[in-house]
Amino acid sequence: MRVLLAHNRYQLAGGEDAVMAEEQRLLQENGVEVALYEQDNRSIETMSRLQVAMDTIWSRRTVEAVSEQIKHFRPDVIHAHNTFPLISPSLYFAAARHGVPVVQTLHNFRLFCAQAMFLRNGAVCEDCIGKLPWRGVMHRCYRNSGAQSAVVVGMQGVHRMMGTYRNKVTRYIALNRFCRDKFIEAGLPAERIVIKPNFIDLPAPEQRERQGGLFVGRLATEKGIDTLAQAARLYPEAKVGVIGDGPEAKTLQNLPGLNPLGWMAPHDIYARMAGASYLVMPSVWYENFPRTLVEAYACGLPVIASRLGAMAELVQEGRTGLLFTPGDAADLAEKLRWADSHPAIMRDMGEAARREYESHYTSQTNFRQLMQIYQEAQDYVCAA
What we know:
Number of strands: 14
Distance between the termini: 21 Å
Order of helices and strands: EHEHHEHEEEHHHEHEEHEEHEHEHEHHH
Structural class: alpha/beta
Strand order of the largest sheet: 2-1-3-4-7-8
């Protein structure tokens, strides 16, 4: 099988870039021939605003470059991860012109939300689900810019009217049931959406003493940093290490229950996870598929998460972790206090979390799912 991967890299590497790289490695290690069509958002710095706006809606460069790759590489399927902004939905038309099926992983809600997270003013916002997303311009949802928001909404509106999202993508990959339901509610055809989670390969952690909690992630509003800070004030006996950096770093300073550790390399994070009693995920947005959660499960670490979106689906309360009311610092503080008071139960939850990882989130399980999705996409095009 030949697979052409398409990905628009972010200026600051994040989870989507990591997932794409891991899936590329997984395919190659299992004998799949892979080619890559890639754009990098750092190149925006040398482009005019007009050119960036035009490429966001329709990239002639993508059509020409992908058409050439199709002719020479002859892929059986094109698997796109991020197409925003420089690759653009024109990728799908180039593929259709040559009869190549397209699989699109839905890492966020960009097709229907200018801000991509269904989040506004620190709270969940679904104003544009199933509607023309003009409110995204009114609220300046993309980077707090009316002009840039208009470009994103223009892309969404043009391609909705053209039927691009409904007709040009052969299979969509949603990362969990919650997100699949949201995409169907927003207008994607249910029969084209399959579920495949992300994966990671980590050996079972060594048995050792575990103590305290851990937060891992960007220190930003959507990650529930304010909720974590308030909970630490309510429960100052907490001992939570905070790994990460970001605009809300100051919010967590000088709180006795929190220990800011800054940014760490992955192997150092996994070592910390192997010695903690639980991971804290106080996010206030839907979190399509938090990679950190799977990393925690792989390290035998239960998760205390907001009862929100996919987290309420992925964390089995009382088995692989605990859930609390989103944004409710008192509820979070109570869950932290309970976890610290029941170390044996939390260890049992951690063992259950590792079993959950081994059943659903390993590379080989993921590879089998991916091959099935690719085959379904090929069969669909052949039958059409």
